[in-house]
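INFO  loader      accepted 1 record
INFO  loader      residues=300
INFO  predictor   begin
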Amino acid sequence: MRFKADISNTSQLTRLITSLAPLSKVSTLKLKADVVHLICQGERGGVQVWSQIAVNSIFKVETLRLESNSSNEIYLEVATDALARALKSAAGSTKSTIKLAKKGGEGPNGTGRGSHPVLSIDIESASRMGKKLEITQDVFVTVKKAQDVALLKEPLCPVPDAALLLPPLQILRTVAERMKTISSIITLSANNAGTFKMRAVSDEASVDTEWTNLKRPNLGDDNDEMTNPNEDPNKMFSVSLETKNLLKFLNSYQIAQTTIFCLCPNHCGIFYVYVGDSKDNLQGGVLTFFVPAFNADGDD
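INFO  predictor   done
INFO  writer      dumping tokens
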């Protein structure tokens, strides 16, 4: 089993992992030749993330070496926060290489008995005097079997009743932070005519923020599958989310270029966060956030 590649976009990969760290202590990585799947299931009843990131948006494809007995796919479980800290060390580096290795065991290279698998990040940079500096950050991982990863399933959701392109997530995050002082629950409402609302209510206050003339997602033939095509486009639908869960999702503002919101009343909010170098180039991948509706009864 081998995995090694030069990181082509260290800042984007760091922002990606850092934005997911608050969601789950542990993440599952599925490494494939063309795409990296990153899965964060978080705590029960919390936010889940199922992402697909194009390999060429984070690694230099010509340096990629990926070999395994499972159709050249590798499955790893990693501490999300530890990986984020290791990647932050590569900020400003001239070259960063990530590889799967064994360390900590017997023998001169530590690969013998008692060794354990790690994601090893070799970082090269230069001092102010131009001297070459090299450091290595090791992150413990658990190698998973294909049959174990196959048991991980995305949440089953009904066909959404509304779908819109959201305003910049940083703006929504600022609004949600202010609403947090009012209520632990924020209600999101939307229709298919371009209206989106956020509302927080308490015994002392009620705050509403509304956006209009938002665009519908352009998904071609998939549009009819995203929402009910026979529904009145002006009809509003709502879902109430725990403020803490909504803010966990909104932390992805660091990497989001375009975000599609799909509303499933009384069930969940689904957010498709597209990443890339710019709003005109969204080939980097997509992160799908499932944020469950607030259940006053406390049942799943």
